[in-house]
Amino acid sequence: DYVINSSRTITNASEMLGTSPDGLVDSIARKIAEVKELNDELKTLRTAGARARAGEIVLRRKNGVVVERVDGLTPGDLRELAIAVRSNTAIKIVVLGGVTPSGGVALVAATGAGVKVSAGDLIAQAAKKVGGGGGGKGDIATAGGKNAEALDEALQLAVQAAHELV
Questions:
Q1: What is the Cα gyration radius of the chain?
Q2: Where are the beta strands (DSSP E) in the chain?
Q3: Which one of 9, 95, 121, 165 has the fewest CB atoms closer than 10 angstroms to its CB?
Q4: From CA 146, how far away is CA 100, in angstroms rounded?
Q5: CA geometry: angle at 150 spanning 62 and 116, to 5°?
């Protein structure tokens, strides 16, 4: 039974990959290399997209502070976008929040050079408002939550924190 089941699995996998059972291992290795290459390309495109979007966001700063809602990004992409925004020398503080593709909430805070405020302090209350938590010390912090309906209120708390702490 074990041999028969293993043979069926190998045959099915081979058919899925369009190869013979003898070529299965090589085909899997090629697919893994292809996936790695595509992931690298995707990361490069996401970074380029974040840089382009960062330029637009920087234009909406007020006294060096940007607090903005950006929906549809993964937490990692939102973090990359915050870092790209922060790289502009006109930015002292950036807080981005958004509803992720999975329906959760992601928050990211980043502070520029010379800002003594912890990024975590900027989003601590906002994270609680969206029913979550997070952290980070120093110049970048991330948080998450589940209450997407409270995101706009949470971002208002971040605006208040930014103006009070700076």
A1: 22
A2: 65-69, 93-99, 105-111, 133-135, 140-145
A3: 9
A4: 10
A5: 40
